[in-house]
Amino acid sequence: MFYQMITNARNRWFASSECTAQGIIAYIEKTKQMRDAQVDAIKTYLYLKIACGCAPLAKLFSQGAFNTLDLEQEELSAKTRAFLLGHPAAAALFEYACLKNDSGEQVSEKLEKQIRKAPESIDYEDFFQSAFYGVSYTDYLFSLPMGAGKTYLMAAFIYLDLYFAKNEPHNPAFAHNFMIFAPSGLKSSVVPSLKTIQRFDPSWVIPQPAASEIKRQISFEVLDQGKTANKSNKTKNPNVQKIANHQPLSELFGLVAVTNAEKVILDRIQEKLGQISMFEESDDEKDRQANELRNLIGKLPGLSIFIDEVHHAVSDEIKLRAVVNKWAANQTVNSVVGFSGTPYLEKAEKIKVTDGLSVSSAEISNIVYYYPLIDGVGNFLKRPIVKIADIPDSSRIIENGVREFLDAYRNTVYPDGTRAKLGIYCGTIEKLEELVYPIVARIAAEYGLSGDAILKFHKGNKQYPQPADSQMEFDSLDQPFSKIHIVLLVQIGKEGWDCRSLTGIILSQEGDCPKNMVLQTACRCLRQVQKDALETALIYLNNSNAEKLNAQLLKQHHISLKEFCEADHHKVSLARYDRTDYLHLPKVDFYQLKIHYETLIVDPAEPEKTLSDVCKNASIVAGTIKTTDFSMEVADTRVDNEERGTVPASYSSWLYNIVRSSLYTLTMEELQPYDAQLRSIFEKITYQRDGSRYFSSKYDLSRVEANIRKAFCVLRSYETREERIPQSASLLNIANFTQVVETERPQDYYPDQETVQKIVLDDQGKLKLDKKAQAMMELAQEMGQEDVLTMLRKKYSSHPQKDRSFHYLPYHTDSGFEQIFLREVLTFPEIERLGLEVYYNGDRAMTEFKIKCYKRSGDAWQYVGMYTPDFLILQRKDGKIHKAMIAETKGEAYANDPKFKDKKAFVETEFLRQNNVAFGYARFEYLYLEDTLPERDRLVLTQGKICEFFKEKL
Fold first, then answer.
1. What is the spatial distance between Cα 848 and Cα 729, in angstroms, rounded to a whole number?
2. Distance between start and end Cα atoms, the chain
3. What is the value of pTM for the model shown?
4. Cβ-proximal residues to 659 (8 Å cutoff; 6+ apart), any chain
C-alpha cells in the first residue's frame, strides 16, 4: 500500500511547474508504442529518479517525500497536529495508516489511533527502515501483470537512465551500467526473452538523434557460460572474461549484462541460520571463480540491478541482499529494480511499531508501482472465457475442451500470420503419450487437421524420449510458418513462456501443474497478439483447478474468478470533429496576472569560514555518575566520557552520504576544494580503534552533516512585482486535437457517437429525416406556418442547440455531473433569448483558456497553480466575445481540496476584479455549483445567475 502514497505524490509532481519530465512523457505518449501500463510505470520511475534522487524508500518516507495529506483539514488535537507538522516521518506513517485498499479496508485503524493519541511513542525512522528490509541501497519493485511488457519496460528504463546520465554524467541518480538477473528456475524461458531488450527501439522513449547514439554505445553480454574446457588456456570462468573485456571498468558506460541470479551470482554461497558464507578465503577453485565474478561485478560503476520475476528470488533473498550489500559498500550500486506480476508473500509479515503494536501486510513492501491484473483484461490481455467442467473424467474434459476450441478458433489467423493455439497441460509424460495424444489426434483428424498440427513437448524419459525437433517447433510457435494448432505439455510453459498466439488452455485434473501455479498456468493464453484488438481466449478447467484459480485470484489480485471473467478494459475508438470554424467561434480576450520574482541573495555561502563551526552545536554532552549513600551525600562524581561509537567510518562514503542527503543540490565537485577542512572535521567526529576508524558517539552525526550542507547554501530572499498580461485564448487547443480518440470509458464522452454523427451530417445539410417528419415540415411550409416549421426543425434536428455549443465533438468530461449541467443549461429558454453559447472547457489538454492563480502570503503573491474552468457561457457583440460567465461544477469529494479552494478564491476575487476593471465593464462572472445541491436549487441558482449577469439580449 506504500505505492499509493508514491503514486499520489507522483501525480502531484507531474501536475506542478517543478516537473521536468512532462516533455519526455509527452514524447513517449506521442510515439504510441508503449502500453498505458508501461507509460504509467515510466512516470513513476522518472519521478523517483528526478524528483527523489533515486534515494532509498526508507529515507524518502522518513523525509516525508510522499506526504500529500492536508493535516490542517484533519480532525486532530493541537498537540498531534503540531507534532505531525514538525515530523515528516510521523506524518508519512499517519497518512499510510489512513490509506484504504480497493475493498475500502483501512491499512491500520489501531496505528492511526496510536498516532492520534501518542505520536511521540513511535520511532518512525526505525519503522520505515524495518518496513523496507533494513537495506541501505535503493530497492524499488514494479508490479505489472503478465502481458504488460515487463521486458520492454526494462529496456525503456535502461535507455532513459542512459539518456539522462549522458546529460548529467555526475548525477548519481542515474545508472551507467546494468545487470539483469533471471531466477534459475526460469533460466530456459526467461533469459532468452530478456534478449529482446536488444531489439527494443529506443526512439519509442527518447527522441532522435539521442536514441541512436545511445544504442550505439550499449554493449550486451549474456553471462550464461560454464567454465571452459580443461585444456583451454583461457580463464576458467568465461563470464569473468566477458566483463573484463570492458576495461577500464571505472569509465564503463552502457554495459547491459544478462545472467542467472542463482547459478551465476549466488553460486558457492551458503546460508545457515541467517548467516552468509561466501568462502572468500577458500582454496577451492570453484569458490575462487564464483567470488572473482562477484568482485568484478561489484566494481562496475553506477550499476543498476534489474531482477525479473522477483517473486522467484524470495528463496535466495538473504543471499542476494548479502551480495548487493557488499557491492553497495563500494559505492557502485545505483539501485536494485525488481519486476513481478505477483508481488505477494506466502503469509503476511508483521512490522513492529511499538512493543504492543505491529502492522501486517502480505504485499512486498517496496512496491513503488502497481498495475492490477484486472485492468489489463481487454486492454493488453485477451478477455478470458472460463469454462468449468463438473466432470470427474479427465479424458472427457479434454475432449470437450478441444472441440470447443476448434469450433471457435480453428480458422483464427492473427494479423501477424500466426495461428491460434491450444495448450493442454498433462501431469506426466505417460499421460500425455498414452491418454491425451490419442484423444487429441482423433479429434484433430475429425476437423481435417493432420498430425503435424499437434506438438508433443516434454523432456523425455526412458520409455518416451523427447520427440525429435520438438524444441525447435516449440521455439517457433509464434512464427507465421508454424503449423501447430495444439500443444501438449508436461511441466513446461507454466511461467516465462511468452507465446502470444496461445489462445486456449486446458487443465483437466489436479496435478496438471503445481497447485500454487494454477493462476500463472491458466493465464498463459492471455497475452494479446495485435495491439488494442479485442481478442478472447478459452480457459477450460476441472472443478479442482477452478477452485484453486479463484483462490489465487483472491489472494494475489483481490478479485474473484467472476470479476476476472467479466472484466473488459478494451479501448474503443471514437471519431472527433472540430466545429470552431462552423461556429465562427472567436478567441476569449482576458488579462492574466503575472508575478515576477526577483531573487535576492542576502548572504552568500562562505564554506571556508563556516565549516570550522559545524561541530559546535553537534557535540553530545557527556553524562555524569554520582556515588551516594543513604544520606544522599555525594561521595564520588565521575564524568562518563567513554567512547561508544560502533559505526564504521569511511571518508569517501561519508562525503557521498552528505551529497546524497542534499537531494543532489550539493555535488562532490563543490566539496573538493574544501577537502582539507572536511578531512579535519572527519578526523574530529571519528576515532581509531584496533586499526579501524569509527564514528564517535560524542557527536550527533546527522547534525554535523546537516551543518556542512548549510555551509554551502546561500541565504536567499525574493521580491515580487505584479503585471497584467493581455491574452487571447482559443477554446480549442488544435495542437492536441486528434480525429480519433481511444478510450475504455466511452460513457465519459458527451454526446454519444450517434448524436455526434447526426450533428456533423446536420452541419453539412445531409441529415435525412423520416418520411413522416418530412411531410409535416413540407405541410407547415406550404401553409406559411413559420412558427410551426421552426419548432419542427428544432425537434427533428440532430440537437436543438447544436449551434450554441459543441465547439468540438465529443467532449471528454470528468464526471456525470458535468454532463448533467450541460444538458440542463442548454434547455433554458434564456440561452436562446439572450443569445448565449455554452462551451465545455474542462479538458485541460483541449483548451487554451486557463487562469494562473495566486494567493496572498504576507505582502507577496504565492503561485498556487493553473486553473482550468469547467464551462464558459458566452455572449457575443459585433462578432467578438462580450461577456463570459465561468461555470465550475464540483463533486463533493473534491470541493474541499485546499488547492482548489485557493484557486476558486483567486478567480472569484482578483481575477474578476482585475479583468472587469481593465475592460471597464462587468465582462466576467463566476458560477459555482456542487453536486450536493438539490436539483431544484441548482436550476434556480443557475438560471438566476445567468439572467442577472447577461440581463438583456444585445
1. 5
2. 58
3. 0.62
4. 172, 666, 667, 668, 671
